[in-house]
Amino acid sequence: MDQIVKQMKRSANHIRVRIINACLEHGDGHAGSSLSCADILSVLYTDILRVDVKEPKNPKRDYFILSAGHKCLALYATLIEKGFEDPSIMDTYNQLDSKVPGHPDEQKFKGIDFSTGSLGHGLGLACGVAIAKKLQNQDNRIFVLMGDGEHGEGSVWESASVATQHKLDNIIAIVDRNKLQINGSTEQIQSLEPLKQRYEAFGWSVQEVDGNSVEALNACFHKVPFEIGKPSLVIARTIKGKGLSFAENKAEYHHWNPKDPIEIAAAKEDVRKLIEEGFD
Questions:
Q1: 247 near 189, Cβ under 8 Å?
Q2: Residue 9 and residue 79: Cα distance in Å, rounded?
Q3: What is the signed CA dihedral for 159, 162, 167, 171, rounded to 10 degrees?
Q4: Helix extents (H) in the chain
């Protein structure tokens, strides 16, 4: 196995273990949402994003915007994995005045570019940054991760139009397409399909990929921008709750409060398996 692939898989395991442990130790967290995008974040921060741990606000960096801010456990775990913060920072997760709140705060946690959480705003924010960088003749790329349920917000589609109008090929948007949101299936609540064709109709260049395969994700991200003069969209097909055996593909684990002793035991066993697979 290629060394970089091993590194990305190991990192994804690290991220999942930290997500599950945070929920177990602190009593709650958006487990399903965070676990589905662990491979995406592992690939981005291992081999794609130009970021500097020693200089998090380096003006030449690539930007990462977690539009779906409730997935913050995945981002916290990734930034710890990258070395932006010490693992001990998670000791106060979601407590009063914590540096690790229930949504990401750029003032509290190193490596976070923007405070997010109000769904539907991330892509518009990315457009603003992308336009500014174009005006400054800078080659920064702006990656933005959105949830699929988030696409019920009209501001997403307004921003998709703006990105095309301004030919923002420095934007790479990613949809965590696990097909579930807090209260059920996206297709039953507000259907997104055909999602690829909808974005293409807005003028985007779109690729679909297995969002839980680090190899497929890495190959895809290395091709951006997919077309000069067009914003790029990656539809990452994922499994909600990936790695937490009893929670996979179940909307009720969008947010998890681990109280059931059977679930807690199963989660600890899942952590053990992830560690065995390669947590060194």
A1: no
A2: 16
A3: -20
A4: 3-26, 31-36, 38-43, 72-82, 122-135, 154-165, 186-189, 195-201, 214-221, 261-278
> Residue ranges of the alpha helices (H) in 27-153?
31-36, 38-43, 72-82, 122-135
Q: How many other CB atoms are found less than 10 A from the CB of residue 86? A: 9
**CATH annotation of 3-278:** 3.40.50.970
pLDDT of residue 1: 61
Each residue's pLDDT tens digit, 129-150: 999 999 999 999 999 999 999 9
Tens digits of per-residue pLDDT, 69-111?
A: 999 999 999 999 999 999 999 999 989 889 999 999 999 999 9
Instruction: Enumerate the domain spans of the chain.
Output: 3-278
Q: How far apart are CA 266 and CA 275, in angstroms?
A: 14
CA distance to 53, 100, 149, 157, 254, per residue, from 183 (Å): 37, 26, 10, 22, 9
Task: Give residue for tokens 């996979």.
Answer: 248
Assess whether the previous peptide bond of 261 is cis (omega < 30° from 0): no
Distances (CA, A) of 25 to 38, 91, 253, 263: 19, 9, 17, 14
Amino acid occupying residue 177: R
